[in-house]
Design goal:
Elements lengths: L6 E5 L4 H11 L7 E5 L3 H6 L5 H4 L4 E4 L4 E3 H10 L5 H7 L8 H11 L13
Parallel strand pairs: 1-2
Antiparallel strand pairs: 1-3, 3-4
């Protein structure tokens, strides 16, 4: 996993699941600060002109201050990697056998460590 001073999470601010995960992450102790930016926003376009912004509408995307980009399962893993409590789990999820389950594991962990027993639905896979 890379050294990072902060990570930006591009998320769908109109999606109940994305807002729920954002709130869950904001309540965690973080080893690496997370900055949340709505996808396709003027701020996202200004900060990351090199991104395929249509793709960010299809997949959760995480970007480091150096411009490293993670999408889909890798982005979910990076969100966990930023947390103090779940960094070890993120490293396990980065292994090839676990990677396809990353999104489901993150949502399960979030649901088990919050008062919401089940995350809201979302169109993103």
């Amino acid at each position: 996993m890379p050294a990072a001073r902060w990570l930006t999470v591009l998320y769908d601010d109109g999606c109940p699941l994305c807002r729920w995960v954002r709130g869950w992450l904001e309540r965690r102790e973080l080893l690496v600060p997370l900055v949340f930016v709505p996808m396709r926003s003027a701020e996202a376009w200004r900060a990351f002109p090199f991104l395929d912004h249509d793709r960010t509408a299809q997949e959760v995307t995480v970007v480091s201050e150096r411009g490293d980009v993670w999408t889909a399962e890798s982005a979910w893993i990076m969100c966990l990697w930023a947390t103090a409590r779940f960094r070890g789990l993120s490293e396990r999820l980065a292994e090839p056998a676990w990677r396809p389950r990353a999104r489901a594991v993150v949502l399960s962990v979030a649901a088990m460590t919050t008062r919401t027993p089940r995350p809201p639905d979302c169109g993103l896979a």
